Amino acid sequence: MPRARKALPETVAAVDLGSNSFHMLVARLLDGQLSVVDRLHDMVRLAGGLDAERRITQEAAQRALACLERFGQRLRHMAPGSVRAVGTNTLRSARNAPEFLAAAEQALGHPIEVISGVEEARLVYAGVSHSVADDGSRRLAMDIGGGSTELIIGEHFEPVHMESLYMGCVTMSRAHFADGEITPKRWRRAELAARTELEPHVEAFRRLGWGDAIGASGTLRAILRAVLESGWSDAGITLPALRRLQEALLKAGHVGRIKLPGVSEARVPVFPGGVAVALATFEALGIERMRVSDGALREGLLFDLIGRHAQDDVRGRTVTNLASRYNVDLAQAQRVERTALDFLGQVAGTWSLDEDASERLLSWAARLHELGMGIAHSGYHKHGAYVLANADLAGFSRRDQQLLAAVVRAHRRKFPVAVLRELPAAWIQPATRLALILRLAVVVHRSRNPNLPPQIQLEGDAKTIALRFPEGWMEAHPLTQADLEQEADYLKADGYTLTIT
After folding, report:
1. Confidence label for 27 from pLDDT (cuts 50, 70 and 90)
2. Does position 6 have pLDDT exceeding 60, yes or no?
3. What end-to-end distance do the CA atoms of the chain give, in Å?
4. Reduced to 3 states, what is the DSSP secondary structure of residue 272?
5. Residue 121: CA atoms inside 13 Å, Cβ hemisphere, count?
6. Whole-angstrom Cα distance, residue 123 to residue 147?
7. What is the pLDDT of residues 421-430, one digit of tens each?
8. Span 107-143, pLDDT tens digits
9. What letter does residue 111 receive in the DSSP assignment?
């Protein structure tokens, strides 16, 4: 059985490496509630630092790393697992993101995950739904980031429908107001670009409907302050107020002449693009009024972190749903999982495997190793790996999915050394060893016999693996012996020696 998880430290933190701003939030967990003790943010404008080849420039990287060094001074002493740091749109698309992330993790002192747009939307909704009163109605949440805009319809604390659209305050401002000029023609082009991005999704959102619209981003908070303090709205952001704001921006004619209450100098260069996205979305979806929440992605990260330690890890639900969707043989998956975790317990120390992280990954891989059979039996390990690497999996970062896909891909037939070597350097050896454990557990249960085999001893060092069965058991199970001998041949090709006694 899986071991009990380590208790979550009392103090936890979230870091959001957004395309426009980096945010850090530190909170204490008291009686299941979060009490914020520290906040920091810096308008890094990482998306504005992408060159024509979509590479983060040295200047932008230096700004970002200097910010993370400051965050790191506050967070570096915190226990592993108590800090969740995520990168969003710009780090999803930058060609040199891996090199930047290596330096960023060193500056911060904690791992950084890159999450998909849909996962970002899920976490935004988690932050919003925990920050406003739950009246039981269906809600629309919107977050305008630097590089993307997330739209979510949810009920209570669960999202119902999510989209992440490639339009944000930085990308829209760079595309249409790069030199600072704001003209009616440019504004029409910006709104048309936003409406084009929205067009495929409007019908689905309108069909689902909602009772309350809630915004969650620095852009929408700045818009709210501007329209309230200018007297264009008495509560929330409205469509007429956005049109008045548009008129004010066109009247200014240049970002250097924008003087609006509640809009900081730092935000002004990307403000027109954010307003264009907001106005286009209000018009396309028919939003009449939107209030703005204090909670957003970083708060969602903390609530998700708490859930992982409170036996409410959304990744577990995702794995269960995948297994159901692809008609995985649950009894067989459970047999393989039990044996794989038993093997892990025997070699984790010798192989220097982090038991918490390894146990989670190995458990998920065992439960999903036959997922590809729902597509085709031939090469099903490859089909399963493709799904796991490319599907939107709630709760999983891109790295999580890459690791899970690699272990599932490696669980049978020829050992895919090239696939494993494409993983982040720090994970190549652990993932390889977890794949070896899973392979052996799968072979032991190839007969799909419901009766578990007796206690099997597993030992391993750098390139040698030994399986020891009770005396006489192998002679009584010649098919298993033949399967293990075939497995020894597969592993020999990569320099591993498997002995069976």
Report:
1. very high
2. yes
3. 26
4. helix
5. 25
6. 16
7. 999 888 999 9
8. 999 999 999 999 999 999 999 999 998 888 899 999 9
9. -
pTM of the model: 0.91
pLDDT at 3: 53
C-alpha–C-alpha distance, residues 336 and 493, integer Å: 24
Q: Give the Å distances, CA to CA, from 313 to 306, 354, 395.
A: 9, 19, 8
Q: Is 464 helix (H, G, I), strand (E, B) or coil?
A: strand
Mean pLDDT value of segment 235-243: 97
- Give the pLDDT of residue 32: 66
Angle, helix 271-285 to helix 239-252, in steps of 10 degrees: 150
Give the pairing of strands 212-215 and 289-292: parallel
Phi-psi region of 456 (alpha: psi -120 to 50; beta: other; left: phi over 0): beta
Distance separating alpha carbons of residues 370 and 365, to the nearest angstrom: 9
Distance CA 143, CA 150 (A): 5
Where residue 286 falls (left for φ over 0; alpha for ψ -120 to 50; beta otherwise) is left
Tell me which H or E stretch contains 426.
helix 425-444
**Does 206 have pLDDT greater than 70?**
yes
Identify any residues that bridge with 467 across adjacent strands, giving them in sequence order: 458, 500
CA 217 to chain centre: 18
Pair 283, 203: CB distance under 8 Å: no
Structure tokens at 386: 């493709």
